[in-house]
Amino acid sequence: MSSNDEIIKTENLTKVFGSGKKAIKAVDDVSISIKKKEVISLVGQSGSGKTTLARMLLRLLKPTAGKIIFEGQDVTNIEGKEKKAYWRKVQAIFQDPYASFNIFSPVKKVLLDAFKLFDNKFTKEEKWRMVCESLEAVNFRPDEVADKFPFELSGGQRQRVMIARAHLIKPELLIADEPTSMIDANLRSGILELLLDLRDTEGTTIMFVTHDLGLAYYVSERLLIMHEGKIVEEGEADKIISEPDHPYTKQLIADVPKLSEEWLLE
Amino acid sequence: METLKLLFKSPKFIAGLGIFVFLFLTAFIYPAVVDKNPFEMVGLMYEAPSSRYILGTDNFGRDVFVELIHGMKTSLIIGLFAGVIATAIGVTIGLFAGYKGGTVDNILNSITNIFLVIPPFVILILITVSLRSRSLAVMGLVLGITSWPWTARAVRAQSMSLRGREHVDIARLNGASVVEIIIREIMPYILSYIFMAFVLQVASGILNEAGISMLGLGPSNVVSLGTMLSWALLFESVRSGAWWAFVPPAITIALITFSLYFMNTGMDEIFNPRLRS
Question: What digits encode the pLDDT tens for the residues B228-272?
């Protein structure tokens, strides 16, 4: 892989929580690389360190050791203006659409707040036009939802507002941490399609962080399997599903519920 | 809005607020309408309550009723001032310590703990003794800066539990500054708590003023409920049976703090749905 089509990579990234005897290595010496415009999934059970890794990539959490390199530039320790510029290019969608909102702000404020990243580059009218465009992109009628408060929206609608936010910022890399795990099953595919649309229309690289191997296989081209802070297997989604190497991957595949089989309750 | 409506349906809150507003208005309207000097010596020492002096006279022959109203006004001003200062310091330190965590938290928390283990009354006495003239503002300030620590601790705990919320992460990803995040993402969530803490701080400000004034370290050149008690104590009103010199200010202090505590309990029941009956 040439470094040209690589958007972000980590070198020996490690995060240790606590110190001394109680120290826990949440992320242990992880080196991964993500290509431009690909859809990749980071799969692991809860406690595997996948969210910690995602938060480090988002620069919300300081790594204990290692490096994060974004488009050839070391971003591990950037602060201030540079960090803001980084967040223009790397954004997130979180798991809990209820907690992602400040309950005191209406939808339009959530979206308009994102313009802080652009240092007043736009006029008021331009901002409003872009907010409307983004809301339309996720199938909302802007005048209907703009003034609504989060408690007036359903979980799926809230997650769509979050996708509208990503649409507004148009990041190069979007990290979606369990974006559908708290949404009704029948709305999931809609949310996933909206996310995948972003890649098709804006060329956004998308990284899903999930515990659901079935979902990961459905949406992504490549998989990273994480277990106890380490990446135990990575490669093409098809190949991992058909020929898993690591015992943990095999177990994950076996654990995906199938409709046609009876579940064995041990 | 919903909670505000509920609040005004809570009998405890309404009763507390009613008593407080009544005392507050009396304390501020009476002196403005009736031009009587509380320091004027109108009668003899310890004249019993009569139609002329509803609550009798004190050891200097001054009208206790006029003194009481003026004293209430002084005590309320000092209490409110102390409450504002204590809440402002406590909330600022608590929010920063809780949100920032790490070293900032360690430093701020140590300062809070140091203030917490020194008995505030000792600091109060030392500061007031060293001051030549004690105006209302100075008294309020001194009472405020000795009583903020527990507000800081409580706010810190709440702020800590809020900083991990995802909307805080979203705000960070928007490039919001620490101050912006604290004011817009964290403070609104604990505003009801802050208001409750403020009410309790006002009550303890009034109580502490009374305590410190009884020792003769109260505000200079004004009557307060505490200084009235102090004079009653110094001039042996108990032994001379002049109950009207100490009972009215004591009841007034009790009534003000009681109304504030009652308001606080009412608010607690509304803001904390588990306590609703």
Answer: 999 998 888 888 888 998 999 999 999 999 999 999 998 888 887
pLDDT at residue number A4: 64
**Virtual CA dihedral for B69, B73, B76, B80, nearest 10 degrees?**
170
Residue ranges of chain A whose CB lies within 8 Å of a chain B CB? 58, 60, 83-84, 87, 91-92, 94-96, 99-104, 110, 113-114, 116-117, 165
A–B interface: beta-carbon pairs under 8 A: 44
How many whole angstroms separate alpha carbon B69 and alpha carbon B76? 11
Burial A98-131 (b: 16+ CB within 10 A, else e): bbbbbeebbbbebbbbbbbbeeeeeeeeebbebb
Right CATH for A3-102+171-255 from 3.90.79.10, 3.30.10.20, 3.60.21.10, 3.40.50.300: 3.40.50.300
pLDDT along chain A (266 residues), means of 10: 75 90 90 92 90 93 93 90 92 87 88 88 90 91 90 88 92 91 83 90 92 88 92 91 88 79 62
Q: Nearest-CA residue of chain A relative to B174?
A: A114
Residues contacting B135, CB < 8 A, separation 6+: B219, B220
B197: its two tokens: 């803490």
Nearest CA in chain A to B1: A104
* Nearest residue in chain A measured CA to CA from B162: A99
Which candidate in A59, A78, A95, A100 is best for mutational testing of the B interface (most B CBs within 10 A)? A100
Amino acid identity of residue A56, one-letter, is M
B70 neighbors B31 (Cβ within 8 angstroms): yes
Chain A contacts in chain B segment 131-190 (CB below 8 A): 165-167, 169-176, 184-185, 188-189
Chain A neighbors of B169, CB-CB under 8 A: 58, 60, 92, 94
Stated pTM of the model: 0.83
Structural domains in chain B, CATH included, are: 11-28+53-272 (1.10.3720.10)
Nearest to A94 among B166, B188, B189 (CB): B166
Which residues of chain B neighbour A102 with C-beta distances below 8 Å?
167, 171, 184-185, 188
**Chain A nearest C-alpha distance from B174 (Å):** 5
Strand partners, A24: A17
Domain locations along chain A: 3-102+171-255
Phi, psi torsion values for A257, nearest 5 degrees: -65, 140
Please give, rounded to a whole number of angstroms, the shortest distance from the CA of B168 to a CA of chain A.
8
